[in-house]
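Hi,

I'm pasting everything inline rather than attaching a file, because the server keeps stripping attachments. The sequence lines come first, and each chain or strand is labelled.
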Amino acid sequence: MGGYGDVRCIDENGIRLDGRTVGEIRPISIEVGVVPVADGSARMRWGLNDVIAAVYGPMEAHPRKIQRQDRAVLDVRYNMAPFSTTDRIRPGFNRRSREISKVTAEALESVVLTELYPRSKIRVEIEIICAEAGTRCAGITAASVALAHAGIPMSDMVVSVASGKVHDIVVCDLNKEEDNYGEADLPMGILPNSGELVFLQMDGDLSPEQFQEAWDYNMGAVSVIHEHMVAALKGGEA
Amino acid sequence: MGIPLVPKLLRAHLAELAENDSRHDGRGRFEGRDLELEIDCLVRAEGSARVRMGDTIVYAGVKFQIMTPYPDRPNEGGLMCSAEIRPVAGRGWEPGPPSPESIELGRVVDRGIRESGCINVEELCLIPGEKAWQVILDLFAISDDGNLFDAFALAGIAALKSAVLPAERYEIGEDRPLGVAKTPVMCSYHKVGGRFVYDADKREELGGDERIHITLGDDDHVHSLQKGLKGIFTAAEFDEIMVEARSKCAELRSLLDQKLAGE
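And the predicted assembly:
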């Protein structure tokens, strides 16, 4: 969040830099089986975001101290490839990727039926190959498709999407400029079948009315994204 | 990578196949897997490529930074090449600091590119002793089904050849192509069932012995060699794969040239 400088993210007709209206999401495409050696995998392209998620397991959990007697543990890693952003990212974990890995794991643990696999581990690897904005949302969404593709039992998939505010206007599915210069960002993880939430973050500044508007944009985007996820798993186009 | 278990049955099976001069996937001894090469596939990288060989999939991305030239080479920029094999790429790859395997991969690919002289490091110098471009080539494996070496080397040179110096973003003139004059290409041979084969997959790597990596430049000049893993090979065996490598490298080089020409 910061000053705009000379950048205008929305013109006087309400059209954004990438040509979208305020309530529109970026183009999405999802395919499965993109990591042939994994048990399940998915690639999600969402605007300029290009995200690959791979699932390995359930497998033996080691070291033994991470084992849980009554359920499987989810070992989730979110990582950005060094060439995924304008300035190169030095390989290795940083505080941001650790936090995103943690909240992603907690979102997915809320839907995966982990009690079916005591003492085991399910590895979920999320790699951001190309980043635009909203990589954590694309990562969670791609990871749920990869889990389903791996045949891991889940109560539902997670659809994640972020809305926010630029120039005091609430917009759905922030792009790079809006994320860099905007005043608020509200990413959510929503279960498409029940409308319940498993992931929620927010930073910035939203009035109660703006908050409700951003919330409703996210809820409204769920069904479109969910259709893409289901179509990819069924082997067709949304 | 943890120390893999090698089932005796797999080794015996591969040895039996070798006796009949066949491979477990039906390929000929020096036949590669299906190859896909995609260039300029990553929007945020200044140069990029994706290579698929069978079920092995890798990306290469080029980024640039401004560096201070090394004191003993004040008129030269730099090239850095690093390979990262994250746990996404396979069951056996673990998180953590780079493993010896991934360091070897990055360094062997780096030597082939560097020693071919394909990048003119003097042209990367902006102000002698003060400011120069550093070229950073990142090799990134998505799916490891064997022979990451060749996949990385091909993706690496393809990404460099498509790279554009982002001078405008750094406010030092106009964007221009990096300019990669030569095309070093690597071919790797694994000893499987007692004889060398080209482009081993994961099972052949697991049930095989030593491997030899050969990087050849234009005009068949040798730029890097590496023998890896435990094993003994003869001069005659090396001669045989060197002859094979010459024709295979030429084949890969013309494929790359075609792709770059947009065919």
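The CA atoms of residues 30 and 147 of chain A lie 14 Å apart.

If the labels don't parse on your end, tell me and I'll reformat.
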